[in-house]
Amino acid sequence: MTTIIKEQDLIQSIADAVQFISYYHPADYIQHLARAYEREESPAAKDAIAQILTNSRMCAEGHRPICQDTGIVNVFLKVGMDVRFDIKGSLQEACDEGVRQGYLNPDNRLRASVLSDPLFTRKNTRDNTPCIVSVELVPGSTVDVQVAAKGGGSENKTKFAMLNPSESLVDWVLRMVPEMGAGWCPPGMLGIGVGGTAEKAMLMAKQSLMEDIDMYELLQRGPQNKLEELRIELYEKVNALGIGAQGLGGLTTVLDVKINTYPTHAASKPVAMIPNCAATRHAHFVLDGSGTAHLQAPSLDLWPDVHWAPDYNKSKQVNLDTLTKEEVASWKPGETLLLSGKMLTGRDAAHKRIQDMLAKGEKLPVDFTNRVIYYVGPVDPVRDEAVGPAGPTTATRMDSFTDMMLEQTGLLSMIGKAERGPVAIEAIRKHGSAYLMAVGGAAYLVSKAIREARVVGFEDLGMEAIYEFEVKDMPVTVAVDSQGTSVHKTGPEVWRKRIAEIPVVPV
User: Fold this and answer.
1) Are strands 143-150 and 282-287 parallel, antiparallel or unpaired?
2) DSSP letter string, 82-135
3) Mean per-residue pLDDT for 501-507?
4) What percent of the chain has pLDDT over 90?
5) Are residues 181 and 121 in the same domain?
6) Domain shared by 129 and 194, yes or no
7) How distant, in Å, are the alpha carbons of 151, 218, 311, 359, 456 from that of 362?
8) Could you read off the pLDDT of 310-343 as tens digits, one per residue?
9) How far apart (Å, rounded) are the C-alpha atoms in residues 362 and 366?
10) Residue 61: inside a domain, yes or no?
11) Domain boundary among 150, 175, 195
């Protein structure tokens, strides 16, 4: 018997799922992250996880995005061959409409990050469409749907290789993970696809990230086949690298490793690896023709009793409005600061425009002298918010602009997430600047420190415009000091040695 799926049911179900995953972590992620928090011995990593867990609960309660990067939407459809869609246009158009309605919901408007032209104009579509649709025809009379929102920070760390058949997957993964740095916001999970062709391996890696995190249960019962043995081996060896939460050094870098395989050519061994970040977001539902899908909200009892708050005894309070180069030079690597006062914001597009304007001798819309810049593209505010979730973006994307900004604008310091590369670190050392790190995956928590926000430049860039934020006790860590010492290098080195010397009990 043919099942008819109405267009509006598909659209509304996708719109509801997009909203749902913006503020609810999957239950399995919270459970595994809570275990990681309990066993973490690195103070910096434990503090970062505490911020992520606190942020997660706040988002579940307040129905606001877990991360300011609300992702590019992936829709995976398994369509039963006894299904007929009652839709006017294409399946892609119906899915896009669901995404559009979900992202433009006035009660929880999500950040539009999708650009219509990847090469030239890179103009924002303003509604986060189009989404990425994958369709598989299967026996049956239902439509199985998985909706995921994939952030750019983790997606950008995707790795792919055509290995020789004799090459080791484990060796390749252990080479690639340190290269990924912390821009993918660990702790999260790794999805790996092996076999098929290049595009099949990549699709399998992405689909594996939709699976439940079950490493704790797997370790409890023990492996039952070679693939499970391999998952455990990779889980333990990746964590032994000591990268830790946010790359600060610690016991847990990954909560799970998933591996999907497919037959491949005798001469080939395609391998793809995609990380899922601390803002892991996906939902699953089935349409059977009876109406829209219903997603069950998780109980708040699921979250651990972790409530991060500023520690005024351990953190130095900094007044941004009176900040001097001498004060910046006094900051120590790993020191935690609470920032208050006015800061400016800017991301890739703003930095490129600043560079072009300076090259032409044009006056900038704002004066960066003795200011701090925050690498962020915030979510629009709703109700009484000054700004929506406003966590940091990956700082390495601004590395090529760093020397120019410090040399030509009078900028004092920068805030972002994850490590800085050699070019940026040398510029920081040369100019006596500093790089501060905020926790990726704690965007809503960070936004509560922002008391006022206004656009002061490049308004046409949307979320990439230059804002001025007034903040109160915004938490950051000194990640690169004025001498060029990076905690993203020293922290993992310390914890890699400690993990090698001290037996670690798995989660």
Assistant:
1) antiparallel
2) TEEEE-SS-HHHHHHHHHHHHHT-TTSPPPP--BS-TTTT--B-SS----EEEE
3) 61
4) 98
5) no
6) no
7) 34, 60, 43, 8, 16
8) 999 999 999 999 999 999 999 999 999 999 999 9
9) 12
10) no
11) 150
